[in-house]
Amino acid sequence: xxxxxxxxxxxxxxxxxxxxxxxxxxxxxxxxxxxxxxxxxxxxxxxxxxxxxxxxxxxxxxxxxxxxxxxxxxxxxxxxxxxxxxxxxxxxxxxxxxxxxxxxxxxxxxxxxxxxxxxxxxxxxxxxxxxxxxxxxxxxxxxxxxxxxxxxxxxxxxxxxxxxxxxxxxxxxxxxxxxxxxxxxxxxxxxxxxxxxxxxxxxxxxxxxxxxxxxxxxxxxxxxxxxxxxxxxxxxxxxxxxxxxxxxxxxxxxxxxxxxxxxxxxxxxxxxxxxxxxxxxxxxxxxxxxxxxxxxxxxxxxxxxxxxxxxxxxxxxxxxxxxxxxxxxxxxxxxxxxxxxxxxxxxxxxxxxxxxxxxxxxxxxxxxxxxxxxxxxxxxxxxxxxxxxxxxxxxxxxxxxxxxxxxxxxxxxxx
Length: 415
What we know:
Blueprint: E1 2-7, E2 13-23, E3 29-36, H1 39-61, H2 65-80, H3 85-95, H4 105-118, H5 123-137, H6 150-158, H7 164-183, H8 215-226, H9 240-248, H10 253-258, E4 264-265, E5 270-273, E6 284-287, H11 290-297, H12 311-321, H13 331-344, H14 347-354, H15 362-367, H16 373-380, H17 386-394
Antiparallel strand pairs: 1-2, 2-3, 4-5, 5-6
Helix pairs in contact: 4-5, 5-7, 8-9, 9-13, 13-16
């Protein structure tokens, strides 16, 4: 490669860069020359070309012994058909999706996170996606994304000692990242895919029993949340709506935490989960029984957030006071699903109430035969007693949030 000064027949003067013989996409080789108006532009183009050739030269020197053997074997196999490596690559690239924007993995993750946040993904989702993907990317930030192989992903997913479910969560997030890169043409394939000959192999899932609450445990929990406390006891009544909606309507805890009391209609007996509150971003309506509405009607407040401040700590103290530690994963939602199916035997209705897709089979595989019809009748018929409703009227939860909720009575003592 060299630079020389040229003068064309038209009288134009400039600088010409000779890049030498260059392999074309069709496999042929021809000399490439390009003219520039200034010597500085020509020198810059020549420097860029030399840097590119140096990069490819360094890459060739870093090939492993196994890669060299495979290269020679592929070259010899093509030679039997009268073809070259360049021709084979050109034929493949004509049908394959080309990589137009090679990016290091570190930059790829940053761009993906920024894009997800820009389109309105929730902060918790974005943070979890970054954490999972960074586990794979941290030791290889400078590696070009399109050079990642399924073997690297397999070694990562199998070498951390994760449980089967954890493997699927981490691999799913990494697959999301690479799928985003495919859409931006940063990567041509998805090395985290579970399809094809190079699919990632995961540990088999164990068929574990879904954790739910018994009817007696539900009663203890609701009564603890609805109990009018004594002078030295904490008032858990601000948590009553949270407990009832999660247990008797099956709304996800994080969805309840985003909802307002205005989303609950006690007259029409339903809960509206707005799209902005829903995990799936789709609006749905969940029915309430008359018994559930009776529990909700104890609290006269109809505006403001459903959950109080310091929900996490207060929810833990409530469970402990009801003797429900440890708490089963998604215990309230699983209880609702089990009791609903036992009562109605309607899969489509249960999917609609819980916000599951129509083609999702895991719902029925998990909740079928977890509760009996007798348990369901007792569960759905549970409602507050007349004595409890009278106590709420005498001492309304206007002191919610204070540990010693009862008002201090001023007693006049004559001297």
